[in-house]
């Protein structure tokens, strides 16, 4: 839940909650998610419960087959960068 929603549920003004966050005196754990201030514990990493990762890529026509290979390489590179072992690659030419 973000800080604004938490403040409303606690019956305090968002400005007050923001000041407490800045001073480090909020009574709950917080973390930043981009520009948002989130209240509570962060969610565990996605890769902790991952059993199988499948990469899927598709192009519309046969003359775009080179694009298909490029898409697969790009997605596989991203997945391995996220510590997600790719177990299968599925491709489709429409």
Q: Can you give a write-up of this model?
A:
This protein is an alpha+beta fold. It folds into two domains: 3-39, no CATH class; 46-93, Resolvase, N-terminal catalytic domain (Rossmann fold, 3-Layer(aba) Sandwich), CATH 3.40.50. It has helices at 3-10, 14-23, 65-81, and strands spanning 30-33, 36-39, 53-59, 86-93. The strands form two sheets. Strands 1-2 form a two-stranded antiparallel ribbon. A two-stranded parallel ribbon has the order 3-4. A hairpin with a 2-residue loop joins strand 1 (30-33) and strand 2. Helix 1 crosses helix 2 (14-23). The protein is elongated, with a radius of gyration of 21 Å. The protein starts with a helix and ends with a strand. The mean pLDDT is 84.
């Amino acid at each position: 839940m973000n800080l604004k929603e938490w403040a409303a549920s606690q019956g305090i003004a968002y400005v007050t909650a923001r000041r407490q966050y800045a001073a480090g005196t909020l009574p709950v754990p917080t973390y930043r998610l981009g520009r948002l201030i989130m209240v509570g514990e962060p969610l565990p990493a996605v890769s902790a419960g991952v059993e199988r990762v499948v990469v899927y890529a598709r192009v519309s026509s046969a003359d775009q087959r080179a694009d298909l290979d490029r898409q697969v390489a790009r997605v596989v590179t991203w997945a391995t960068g996220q510590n997600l072992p790719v177990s299968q690659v599925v491709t489709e030419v429409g």
